[in-house]
Amino acid sequence: MKKISIVIPVYNEEGNIQKLVEEIWSNVPDRFSYELIFINDGSTDKTEKIIENICSNDDRIKLLNFTKNYGHEIAMSAGMDIAQGDSVIFMDGDLQHPPSLLPKLISEWESGVKIVLTKRVNNADKSLFYSVCASFYYKILNYLCEHDMKTNTPDFRLIDRYYIEILKKFKESSRLFRGLLYIINAESDTETIEFVAPKRYSGKTKYNFFKLMNLAIDSILAFSIRPLRIALFFSITLFFLSILFGLYFLLEWFFYGNDAPGFMTLLLTITILGSSNLFVLSVIGEYIGRIHMESKNRPLYTIKSAVNLNG
Predict the structure, then answer these.
(1) Is beta strand 87-90 parallel, antiparallel or unpaired with respect to 61-66?
(2) What is the pTM of this model?
(3) 3-state class of 157 per DSSP?
């Protein structure tokens, strides 16, 4: 009998865990064996205790507790590292990735599809502002990363063991699974299922504006050097503009005897050059910072405790 692993990163989801487990068991087909792997990403509520209680009654449910909050992408990586199934399903713990869709993902996999993605066609919890920002984010990301990442494709997906082993070879700490899937060029083995995301069963979203901004910056810098090229182009453009600017005032003085207005010209020049230097240095600094962190070769995560995990 084939085995399917279901990896669920959780952070302060105490109100959703019990309902989620019940929904999963009531929806998955019984022709497979399963393991549910909860990755507790440094929760500060009762999430850990609730999952431990569930684990004590069902050894198919496993729990890995981080020492601190490492983020959603690292939590998924940890789940992938310990998953033993012939395929691995990733889903969130807030019930906005509906367990009722699990049979469809599994059915596609049975038919030979190696990677089954999902696409949100509607989200009951997201505002128009969020939808517009998300669309803009994907357009910028696709342009800068030179990949055609599909919009509204969350981390709710099934990946066959073949591609799991490939993904496990990527060791960078700044990671985005959506980007890694495009790097391994698995488009021919991929299908997408659409779904409507329901409202959260309990609690509030953990992603605020600043976290989304950090995710956007990490995504771009992790998969592209195009920002460096844009900074280079920007610097060259300013260089030629400054030459034209200087020639203009030189010709004004030579032919008409007009002196350049000193204070305003100096102020404008300093402002333009200063801000452009800061912009370019910021882009370079972001890349250097990431190189510095990667060179330390630190572990992606540290484990506080585990339940129902051997070894």
Answers:
(1) unpaired
(2) 0.79
(3) strand
